[in-house]
Each structure stands twice: as C-alpha cells, then as structure tokens.
Design a protein that fits this description.
- The chain has 133 residues and is of the alpha+beta class.
- The chain has a single domain, classed as GMP Synthetase, Chain A, domain 3.
- Helices cover 44% and strands 27% of the residues.
- It has 5 helices and 5 strands; from the N terminus they run H-H-E-E-E-H-H-E-E-H.
- It has helices at 2-18, 23-38, 79-95, 100-104, 129-132, and strands at 41-44, 47-55, 60-67, 108-115, 121-127.
- Strands 1-2-3-4-5 form a 5-stranded mixed β-sheet.
- The radius of gyration is 20 Å and the shape is globular.
C-alpha cells in the first residue's frame, strides 16, 4: 500500500509540474526576475528604472521610474512634454522585438514616472493594443 501511495504521489507531482504555464504567468515571472536582476537601473543621470511589474488581471505590463534633480519639477510636465514622451514611447513599443510576444497577445503597457521628492506620479503613459497595432 505504501508503495502505491508513493507512486501515486510521484505521478501527481510530475503531472502538476507538466502543467503548461499561461503567457500571463510567464510574463509575470519574467518581470519579477528582470526586476530582481536589473533594478534599480539608472537610465540617465536623472531617471532610474525601479521595477517592471505585470498585472495578470489587467493584462498590463508596468515600467516604474523615478526622476530626480532637474526632472523632478512638477511644472516641467506640460501637455507638450506629455505628447513628446507618448510619441517616443509608442515608437519604442512598436519597434521592440523583445515585446513581440506581449504585443501579439494584446498586452497593454504603462509607464509611470514618480517624483523622488514627493513620491507622486509626475507622468503616466498607457498604451493599449489599439495604440500600437
């Protein structure tokens, strides 16, 4: 009887391990691993990528940045700058080979820029499949 239970337990363990991971679960795992290995990462002298996260329910990939020094000024974030950033980020998404599987699956992307001084969001840019297809 013990041998039967052992074999049954091993079979269940193997079958559970063979369960195919969904794309969303894979993206979630990859963003966690990327953040652990690469963040925080200075993008330039005033911008740091703090983390990448993925919300499975919202199907949204988040890039979380903090800005400091001359970029950490509320009045800098005008509609003109917002539009310029939006254009550049959208171009980056459209041309990204690394994001191909996410784009093919219709994942949304959100870029959040936080103030180092106040912690508040200075700029938020969200892109849905309608934007980048």
């Amino acid at each position: 009887m013990n041998r039967f239970l052992l074999i049954l337990s091993l079979l269940l363990f193997i079958l559970a391990g063979c369960r195919k991971q969904s794309l969303e679960e894979r993206i979630y795992q990859e963003t966690c691993q990327f953040t652990l290995k690469n963040c925080p990462k200075d993008i330039d002298k005033c911008t740091t990528l703090d983390s990448c996260t993925f919300s499975i329910p919202k199907r949204t990939y988040y890039y979380n940045y903090t800005v400091r020094d001359e970029l950490d000024v509320d009045s800098l974030y005008t509609q003109g700058l917002y539009n310029l950033f939006r254009e550049q980020l959208l171009s980056d998404i459209k041309n990204s080979i690394q994001l191909k599987s996410c784009k093919d699956a219709g994942i949304s992307f959100c870029y959040r820029y936080y103030s180092t001084r106040s912690g508040k969001v200075l700029m938020l840019q969200k892109f849905t499949p309608k934007d980048y297809k």
